[in-house]
Design goal:
It is a single chain. This protein is mainly beta and 122 residues long. It has strands spanning 2-6, 9-12, 17-24, 32-38, 45-50, 56-58, 66-71, 76-81, 90-97, 111-112, 116-121. A hairpin with a 4-residue loop joins strand 7 and strand 8 (76-81). It is globular. The chain starts with a strand and ends with a strand.
Amino acid sequence: VQLQASGGGLVQAGGSLRVSCAASGSTFSNYYMGWFRQAPGNEREFVAAFSWHSTTYYTDSVKGRFTISRDNAKNTVYLQMNSLKPEDTAVYYCAARSSGTAWQHSQAYDYWGQGTQVTVSS
């Protein structure tokens, strides 16, 4: 499956942004989707993901602010980001995995998008 992330940009602290990830080349509904991010000088970290029965998981720092969703008819997964903070600045990557578990481990993901830059100014 090929993944194409989009929707990043520059936003002021407290603002909102929605990033999207369009999938092609395979049956989108067969995959569990997740979002990761990587800030300069940091390792890639888990942000949000779907697991069994469409259960969603979030890293603690984004709980209550970010929402992952998907539209299987459009082969697209979204990450709605509200109340953005400067520390949310990073390149955001979408990823797809076949397993319903291990949602927070990047090694569990089989396919990755190219990333989209999100910059939050203070």
